[in-house]
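Bench notes, afternoon.
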Amino acid sequence: MMNLSEISDQLEIQQLVIDYATAIDQRNFDDLDVIFTPDAYIDYRVMGGIDGTFAQVKAWLADVLPNFPAYYHLVGNFDIRVSGDTASARTMCFNPMKFDDGPKILLCALWYDDEFIRTPEGWRMTRRVEVKCMDKLI
């Protein structure tokens, strides 16, 4: 049975993943500054993106995502493992993205493999790697 501290850690990390999805979906890319550590590594290559430091990927997101008039992230099945002041998680994500040039929609199904660290300001993500489940253009 988890104690209150363990439950708190789980919920705080889960909320961080949700906050990421909300920031991306609302196109509030500066909100990502309180989700990732400045030295975080992010790898979106498996779904056609880039990999690099948080600053590089944040700039890329702000440049690329406005090309999609509509998209959203549905996250769930949070598998969070806390070990002291570090944690890892695998989270499912369903992310349909509408193309600007007509009725085409890209359906992306993936897992986020994440690593976290506890900071004085709370949990922060230090690593995010997308793992492809499926993508299909309809």
